[in-house]
Amino acid sequence: MSVITISDLTVTRDVDNVSRPVVALGATSVSKDWENAKHKHRKAQLLYSVRGILNCEIEDGVWIVPPQCAVWIPGDLPHAARGAGETECYCLFVEPGTATDLPKTCCTISVSPLLRELLLKAAGFPESYSLGGWEERLIDVLLDELVAAPVEDLHLPMPRNLRLRRLAEMMLADPTDKASKGDWAVRIGMSERTMSRLLLQEIGMSFGRWRRQLHIILALQRLTKGETVQRVALELGYENASGFITMFRKATGKSPARYLSDRTGGTERTSVPAIMLPDGFSS
Hints:
Oligomer: single chain
Radius of gyration: 20 Å
């Protein structure tokens, strides 16, 4: 298998010039944390997490990648990637135009057992695998599965407006703050109407929906550190765990414990590495 270290998965690795439409690589890391600085590839990239939680950052958003999920990054899109603790991931690089109906924008997708096995198998192919043979046929099936993979709502859009960025910083610094939308607007020097309009314009979300999505991101960060649902609920400003669980289930379709259990393949537990938020947005 072509296993490399996380630090090799940077712009310095010349995957764009590999003369095959699809290149698959495996990568592991046992360091405390790792980061690939902002870079881009001409080829589109799929970053799949087998173990550990990763995140991918682009200019206007953060995509969270729990175990058994992957983030799709279109070609020529500047991005940075981070992980914490022991991680294992696989990368798939796809030549533009290789397959139709692949995502046109950055997104997090759920990886089925079949897609997972296809990715692992493809990572063992030689870099210049034979065209027209069984390896290329397997790649075709892999791409079909990738096109059909469901999208997960694990995206936190980030506004570009500097005052809205300041809003994000303050909300992350004190997620228990229950200030009204109007109060938040005053704090960043905007009218409530202007803040609402700019949020819809820049990230396509209302203030309430964006704050709930922020809470999902922060909850995943804390839960994956092993904190209890009760503690996370209180730290995010909920009066009790049931209110938090209701919010989480409405957003993801599952309870927090079940959501993470499904991603780790074990019982309802939360002992996987924590996600990292972008510089200036640590909680």
